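Re: the multi-chain job from yesterday

Posting the exact lines I submitted so nobody has to dig through the queue logs.
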Amino acid sequence: MSVLVFAEVSEGKFKKNALEVVSYGKKLAEELGTELTAFSINAEAPTELASYGADKIITITESALTSFDAKAIASIAAQIVQKENTKVLIVDSSANGAYLAPLIAGKIAAGYASNVVELPISTEPFVVKRKAFSNKAFQNTEINTDVKIIGLAKNTFGVFENEGKGALEDFSPELSDTGIVSVSVQQASGKISIADAEIVVSGGRGLKGPENWGLIEDLAEVLNAATACSKPVSDLGWRPHSEHVGQTGKPVASNLYIAIGVSGAIQHVAGINASKVKVVINTDPEAPFFKVADYGIVGDAFEVVPQLIQKLQDFKSQNS
Amino acid sequence: MKILVCISHVPDTTSKINFTADKAEFDTNGVQYIINPYDEFVLAKAMHLKEELGASITVINVGTAETESSLRKAMAIGADEAIRIDATAQDGFFVAQQIAEVARTNAYDLIFAGRESIDYNGGMVPGILATLLDYNFINACIGLEIADTTATAQREIDGGSETLQAQFPLVIAGQKGLTEEKDLRIPNMRGIMMARKKPLTVKEPADLASKTGAKGFEKPQENAACKIVAADDIDGLIDLLHNEAKVI
Ligand SMILES: Cc1cc2nc3c(=O)[nH]c(=O)nc-3n(C[C@H](O)[C@H](O)[C@H](O)COP(=O)(O)OP(=O)(O)OC[C@H]3O[C@@H](n4cnc5c(N)ncnc54)[C@H](O)[C@@H]3O)c2cc1C
Ligand SMILES: Nc1ncnc2c1ncn2[C@@H]1O[C@H](COP(=O)(O)O)[C@@H](O)[C@H]1O
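And the result, structure tokens for all chains:
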């Protein structure tokens, strides 16, 4: 019996999501009285996972897998699940993780719960707590298959150092042609993605027009944050669709979310509510965002934000 | 080209989410239901392909009779026929298996679904369905071109997009971008009239056990009151974020 995690790399390096699933997997393995196995593909320094709790690290080195081929990785996962006699498999909720997990579930006929926010409520029966109704509620889900798959929601468990044995094992999986070809990857260069960012700065219609987005970008720059926007802002073409956050846009689960000139409509809030700390800057004290925020300033963005940028710059230079 | 569009019937985005007193079930009292917003984008894309390249569009739902309003709406938008598999959607795996039963006998070239349903947010049905049918699968699709039986698609990745190519048959889980907001379809009177005459077939479900089950719900904790900082006290805000919230 083992607990298995998939630790994804980006250009050979583990991302925070990968370290988070390893940290989670270790705690779960301890609860189940077993060891944690991690597998990863084309990782430069796989032993790094030992510091987060991996007892065994299965490494796959395969030039055919330099782009993320979900179907091929699902097949590899199925092979490892079988050979390791895995009982619980954990995958992160990155775009790639969300692509991969259902393919594995289908392939090995395993019950799968996505958006899981903490360690299982009970392991016998196996019940996990997951986000549902677009962050408006939690659902407890029992997984009743022999092998169980958990999709761990981003930034909910955290990254912890643990001691793992870190035994390395090379594995050459059977690969077959999947029929999906990656033609190209377009990565927005030099910008932090909403998915990876610790801090997200978001602008709404209160900013009046795209010409004022320098404020959002400058604030994001001092905070090393990603930029986001409300749905009407992207529908109006002020900002690209990739920045639209909310129930029908990207979900945000950052440490800090700053909403500027965003009213806080239920659909907007649903998508960003998983963020730990929320700040609102709005001229209207009745704006619904104040009901969900932790800190708020009632004020004009065009006056408040330039000061905030200035003071944050001062703060940064004092604290670095 | 034969297209199947999976339609999920979900609470309206403005719905207050409440549960029955024992927290065992979602309380549907006073809740309006709509076509899952992601499914609206894929349905509009299917319509676009039909107009451009010629296609038949079947819409399918796994659900009880009240979901038929969403299927009728999809036909009013332009789908040619609808299938409802008469079962309570127990979990994503169950839904995928039921749809797979129908798809196996119908040789669809393209199966569209939404990236996730906004009620249970599983993000499970399309990927599991693709695996059960041994179709290729593209998730979080934000762009699609069809040439003959080859699809060139963009999928969203963290911080960008990836362009993929795959052959039919194919399952696509889509979202905004696949269609622009302004190109979403709203049924007109003629469409609504015509939809009444289009076939809606009710099928018995296959006898299957589900792999997961809901064991109660919880609402998130109410947020503590928002601390208001004066507009001229930016230092105060920075201090709170640094020392109290510890996020900067
Ligand atoms: C099916 C559906 C799905 C949806 N999904 C989403 C979604 O995913 N994401 C999303 O964001 N929305 C979504 N919406 C839209 C949502 O209902 C709101 O319309 C939208 O979030 C409002 O955007 P906003 O806050 O930018 O604009 P507004 O509601 O117009 O708010 C602007 C705010 O700016 C404030 N303001 C004005 N001037 C200033 C100033 N100088 N300084 C500071 N503040 C100022 C105003 O007081 C106001 O509160 C959805 C709607 C539907 C029907
Ligand atoms: N009960 C259902 N009937 C038909 N299609 C569904 C059903 N549930 C989900 N789907 C489809 O699968 C997509 C993803 O749903 P989910 O996996 O539940 O998040 C939805 O956008 C629909 O296209």
